[in-house]
User: Fold this.
Amino acid sequence: MTATTAPPRRGPASHARADRTGRRRSPVTWFRGGGLSNLVFMLPLILIFGVFSWFPIVRAVIMSVQETNLVSDPTFVGLDNFRQVLADPLLGKAVRNTLYFAFLALLFGYPIPLVAAVLMREVRRARGLYSALAYLPVVVPPVVAVLLWKFFYNGSPTGVFNTILGWVGLGPYPWLQDASTAMPSLVLAATWAGAGGTIIIYLAALTSVPPELYDASEVDGAGLWRKIWHVTLPALRGVLFITLILQVIGTAQVFLEPYLFTGGGPNNATLTVLLLIYRYAFQNSLGGDYGAATALSLMLAAVLAVFSLVYFRLTRSWSTS
Assistant:
């Protein structure tokens, strides 16, 4: 007689292998593989995410094709809200101002946290104190920060900045009252307020860089800047790409500084896209034109989504290599 062996039992791993080979999973195998328990654990998260994230998005899409002020009954108008927004002469100015703010914020606000984090990494003593001082502006309430910077930006000769510049024979300058200096003034305040969080991210990323690399570069005679160029920046490449896209998205949605400092003035010199959305919703008519506001919001979201997709496609190989 020849002995026969029973076929091996197929557990969840074998089912997974079968799935990878192209076989379709049946409800029985899905249940046995823990699918039901996974769904039960995920259900609260799905409900919370759906209520607080997806429902507002769906509601915004519906409102974008309606004429509504949340007071009277909404009326379906199709794409008229989008045509109204595109025909608004202030849209072009708001887009240009937003791009100008983003350019200045990237030009100054992007390298400053990196330089500060690298210098703090090289400090041997009181590094924790410097980190706390760098992060302090983040915890300052925005209203307090705005009042503080408005005091600094006082256009009279007795203003803080004008007084300091007066010591070397410059000024006084109408910082927030002049169209040429209003936007750079907002960028300076925004950089001061937001740089601390990015500095902490860079400092945390720098802790993962092996100290042996710095020791080896010192043995080879590398100075501070060569260590930064050949060791620090390559190690932070992935983090730098992420912070760059986050800063671009954040600056494209700038609202707080123009709203609190200048209200979009002078002469709409600091009017941004989000501030224009706010005007549509709350300053146009009784109850606001929420249809136009949501239409412009969806347009901005679509532009940022396309930009993010293209950015990640282009930098995927660079950030992982």
Q: What stands out?
A: The chain has a mean pLDDT of 83. Residues 221 and 227 are 10 Å apart (CA to CA).
